[in-house]
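PROTEIN FOLDING TASK:
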Amino acid sequence: MQGFGCWVHLYSKLCSGYCIKFLKLYMHGLAQGVSKGVVVEKLLLMMEREHGSLPDLVLCVGDDRSDEDMFESIESLMNDAPSAEVFACTVGQKPSKAKYYLDDTVEVIKMLQGLASASDPSTAPSLPHFADIASLHI
């Protein structure tokens, strides 16, 4: 009940124009129209503009409801790149738009270590620089 009271107070005093979501043990606030899904779409489209195509591999890992927009956006956008491999993973077994799941953060670390040991850094494309991210205009 305290969480709801906090939400009412924040919303009435501070959050006009913001979207407030309750997630696990915290509240998540974003400006209206902004989500992880919007950000990932803009990043992927920036990469397409700069490199002439969408990436051939996308790995997306998240552990709560705020990640669902991101999973949905990646799957939708990457449908235009039929040769791309998309791995959307949720951490923990639960209903999700992610196609895959990992049990816990230990499995996430093992997966990342496996990918790092199997990859060839000389063939990796360049990623957007942090200065470029400011041009997303979110």
The chain has five helices and five strands. The first helix runs from residue 2 to 13. The beta strands are 18-23, 26-31, 57-62, 85-91, 100-102. The two ends are 33 Å apart (CA to CA).
